[in-house]
Amino acid sequence: MSKLWSPAIANDPEAFVNFAFPWGEKGTPLEHFRGPRKWQREVLRDLKTHIAANNGKVDFDVFRLAVASGRGIGKSALVSWLILWMVTTRIGSTIIVSANSEAQLRSVTWAEITKWLAMLINSHWFEISATRVMPAKWVAELVERDLRKGTRYWSVEGRLWSSENPDSYAGVHNHDGVMVIFDEASGIPDAIWDVSQGFFTENTPNRFWLAFSNPRRPTGYFFECFNAKRAFWQSRSINSLDVEGTDNAVYQQIIEEYGEDSPQAKVEVYGEFPSSGDDQFIAAHWVDEAFKRPAYKDENAAVVIGVDPARGGLDSTVIAVRKGRDLVAIRRYSGEDTMTIVGRVIEAIEDFRPTLTVIDEGGLGYGILDRLTEQKYKVRGVNFGWKAKNPVAWKNKRAEIWGAMRDWLKTASMKEDRQLKSDLVNPRKIIDSSGAIQLESKKDMKSRGLPSPDAADAIAVTFAFPVAHREYTARNPVRTYRDGTVSNSWMGS
To answer: What is the extent of the structural domain holding 46?
Structure first.
């Protein structure tokens, strides 16, 4: 027991990994393996260097490392080793592990931790559940009796996050040490990264923050670890072709199928962030420029409300309010039933008195639309799968209204909102065999570890129907024109 706590192992993660697992032992899963891969050893040595550099300091540094890589290089294995090293050698410490989705956390990350814990030389010290590793009762009693150290916070916790309530993710302060690991970090919202800063407020040498991911999108906090925030983060980019022990035929197939310079090859093979290139529907700089523009405040511009109801899970119901070229408001709600959402929409209608309210009628939208129509509100539904007015240019209605939103964005004004920016720039454009443009589906986005672009969809539906410029008077009558244009009504007749 004491050997694992000796400085030669406790302060040298590479030595711990070499000692604690049965490398090369017959009859074990590691029989044909001699130790970590080169890139894994380099990360472990970076950690050792940091620990040594903190020795003797009064104000300790936090170790921050971001690793972008192609697929299949052993990220989850390294995550498991780091967790087991920390929980073994930093008695009383807390380790938080998150991933971009519950499925990733439970099926991939936690499954890997379970596998390596079973091979750990001191596996009998711990008990593991679905998303938690705790010291066994006898170990906790021993540590509390002989070392006189509390064990209440000594654990590994797989923690889920909520972008709608990021503060619920916070709450860990531990002088014995804190490690936070983000697995598939590119898909974790910026708000969760921001809240996680609070984990490291205790002045202790044992503070470690590591993020691993395929670099799936050229936006977000993980991307900025390699760019605007690179002064605060060590960063590594790893090409899967350079990693020993991987099957290069798999990577060559990706390159041959999609092209050497394709986003797929960059992300899955080379460990590079895709550029804002040919497959990006909305360029990031258009969004940034819209954030910088002052509001137009055109009092004669029609107000349109767009609603994208949540379909469950991690998706949010979003209500967007657009007044001409100004995005006036974005309201996000999660976990609410149909009637509660109806109430939210009514609140927005009463607050902003729109000319028209448009609802994505898929999923929950039908029920919301019917209830608001029953109450005589001026609402219309749009189905993303409808045929576009210009089917030569656009595959479906969703692509068409996103195209209208993209054109609007080039002169629009919006308050800065990082989550909204991600929603706008994440979806790819796809050109079918006939040359029509369609937007990447939400299902495909989620398969890349990206959330549903709920806020962007809510803005897009405000472009589903033409709405006339209005005279700004309180008593103008409802006018419906031959082309279906609606003017100056927030309630139906």
So the answer is: 2-270
